[in-house]
């Protein structure tokens, strides 16, 4: 059976180019998007461009736990292998929103979707080993000095978009490292990355000065989404990083993180808090060192 990759946020920007690159590299690719019509258009465009019929999609609002669970079940029902999971979906929100699950939206989309989807599909990754999990984080993880476990979802302190986003991207690295530890010996690697400053649709959902500043930055210094996808594709496919796990990359090279992203206690606490938020425990897989 062809090697299979699953990519979240595959309808635009870095995710779309990741799907394109994986399909060109010979993977069967399933991507997740939230808008069925957009998914159909993107799938059609990429099938033609990559000369591959093996591009399919699933639809979900990945800020909703029920949708994440449904998508995981639909992927399982297709009885595919899972060689590569790219957790790529992400957004910044300029005001505080709460999802129907009662969760702050940045936390739900940018972190919990990575946490829950990966854990719900972990047995498939292990069964397909050697397999890889690639978590798209950001240099913005440096916007915060640590995860504020006392007020994770900005319920008491005033909401600040950059802080909420930065904290979620810090969580991506902490999650990626904890997953790597839990999977040691299972043949599944877990790495995170900063894609660069990319001229994608990122922050187009924001308004006012925030959107203006983001647009100006993207126009002035943004790299193309195709270049932005290079490190994700490198981590997903390159033999150079076979077996490399628990690391953070920029421009296809291992890179230093903030001290907060290397905090082993925070990494374990985040796992526990995430289990509580999604209402399900995910112990380390049996037979695998934790
Ligand atoms: N752009 C940058 O400079 C930059 C820098 C560092 C890190 N990153 C990270 O890179 C990743 C990709 O960002 P990007 O720049 O490619 O952004 P983008 O162009 O805005 O693409 C985001 C993708 O996520 C999808 N999405 C957004 N909300 C969703 C939801 N609730 N449910 C399901 N799908 C949803 C979007 O779907 P639609 O097509 O329907 O909108 C789109 O496919 C993110 O994790 C981001 O944090 C980006």
What would you note in describing this structure?
- With 290 residues, the chain is α/β, with parallel strands linked by helices.
- The chain has one domain (4-278): Rossmann fold (3-Layer(aba) Sandwich), CATH 3.40.50.
- Helix content is 43%, strand content 13%.
- The protein has ten helices and eight strands.
- An eight-stranded mixed β-sheet has the order 3-2-1-4-5-6-7-8, with helices on both faces.
- Helix 4 (105-120) packs parallel to helix 6.
- The longest helix has 22 residues, at 161-182.
- It is globular.
- The mean pLDDT is 97.
- The structure holds NADP nicotinamide-adenine-dinucleotide phosphate.
- NADP nicotinamide-adenine-dinucleotide phosphate binds at residues 9-15, 33-35, 38, 61-63, 88-91, 109, 136, 138, 194-195, 197-198, 200-202.
Give the gist of this structure:
The protein is an alpha/beta fold and 290 residues long. Helices cover 43% and strands 13% of the residues. It binds NADP nicotinamide-adenine-dinucleotide phosphate.
Write the layout of secondary structure elements.
Elements: E1 4-8, H1 13-24, E2 28-33, H2 36-50, E3 55-59, H3 65-77, E4 84-87, H4 105-120, H5 122-127, E5 131-136, H6 161-182, E6 188-194, H7 208-221, H8 225-228, H9 230-237, E7 248-250, E8 253-254, H10 264-278
Parallel strand pairs: 1-2, 1-4, 2-3, 4-5, 5-6, 6-7
Antiparallel strand pairs: 7-8
Helix pairs in contact: 1-2, 3-4, 4-6, 6-10
The structure holds NADP nicotinamide-adenine-dinucleotide phosphate (NAP).
The site of NADP nicotinamide-adenine-dinucleotide phosphate has 28 residues, from helix 1.
